[in-house]
UniProtKB/TrEMBL annotation:
KW Transcription (keyword) present: yes
Span of domain HTH araC/xylS-type: 180-276
Keywords: DNA-binding, Transcription, Transcription regulation
A molecular-function term among this protein's GO annotations: sequence-specific DNA binding
Highest taxon in the source lineage: Bacteria
Gene3D superfamilies the record matches: Homeodomain-like
Protein name, as recorded: AraC family transcriptional regulator
Length: 276
């Protein structure tokens, strides 16, 4: 039964491999996400249990049968499943071939427990846009140094979930002054960076409204703006003769690979080739 337990930049990572099961879990450094959990099970069956977080489930292969509040439900590849905190549920494969799933455990700062009743009544959500957003969030969580992007993605996932759990949609509004204040903050913190929740607290705005106002005003997401500012600084340092690994540290990137990934995306070549 090979297993690893190590400290990583995104929290404690646990990987477990046993016959018929592969489990990988970690604590992302992203506000609102208590745990990310990826698993492949062949014959494991969950007993009745509860979590103190919201369980946001994608099934990527197979199907899952589960009981929630004394009613039977099914989670399939096409849908998103949302289980509320402190409501008992179990789970098992609906086929002999098992299932593969990705789960995010979201705390109540993202989704209020007052929405529990609606979630119990309708835990399966058929929404392709929401499913794609959750998939992209999972992909972003796998990349070190992309915490600001992940924060933006999780806030928009939570907003769409709230839209499914309430009756009346909230209309977005433009806020040029707020967008300008966020741009000033990002300009002041190009190297040090700032989390979305920290920025929202400093500017007294909801994270979703903050990201949306910035995008409407400037045509770019806050995390993309910050990355391009860092790439601009990296260009100048590379042309001044600094080594790529030193440039990465000096411009706020997680490591040289993080710099290279974004530099190539923005400039069209690697930092080393650019410098040469």
């Amino acid at each position: 039964m090979p297993a690893t337990l190590r400290s990583a930049g995104r929290g404690v990572l646990y990987v477990l491999n046993v016959v018929g099961s592969v489990v990988r879990a970690w604590r992302p450094a992203v506000g609102g996400i208590a745990e990310a959990f990826h698993a492949r099970f062949t014959d494991h069956a969950y007993p009745m249990h509860v979590h103190d977080t919201w369980t946001l489930l994608l099934v990527d292969e197979g199907a899952v049968r589960y009981g929630l509040d004394r009613h039977e439900h099914g989670a399939i590849v096409r849908t998103v499943t949302l289980l509320p905190p402190r409501v008992a549920h179990d789970g098992r494969s609906a086929t002999p071939h098992g299932f593969r799933k990705r789960v995010l455990y979201l705390d109540t700062t993202l989704l209020d427990e007052s929405l529990t009743g609606r979630a119990v009544d309708g835990p399966e959500i058929a929404d392709p846009v929401l499913r794609e957003r959750i998939h992209l969030l999972h992909e972003t969580l796998r990349l070190p140094g992309e915490e600001l992007e992940a924060e933006s993605r999780v806030e928009f996932v939570a907003e769409r979930l709230r839209g499914h759990l309430r009756s009346a949609p909230v209309e977005p509004r433009r806020d040029r002054r707020l967008a300008l204040r966020l741009r000033e903050l990002l300009d002041e913190r190009v190297t040090a960076g700032v989390s979305l929740r920290e920025a929202a607290g400093m500017l007294h705005a909801h994270p979703v409204h903050l990201v949306r106002a910035f995008g409407v005003e400037f045509g770019i997401a806050p995390h993309q703006y910050l990355v391009t500012r860092r790439v601009d600084r990296a260009r100048r340092l590379l042309l001044a003769g600094e080594a790529p690994h030193a440039v990465a540290a000096a411009t706020g990137f997680y490591d040289q690979a993080h710099l290279t990934r974004h530099f190539k995306r923005v400039v069209g070549t690697t930092p080393a080739r650019f410098a040469a």
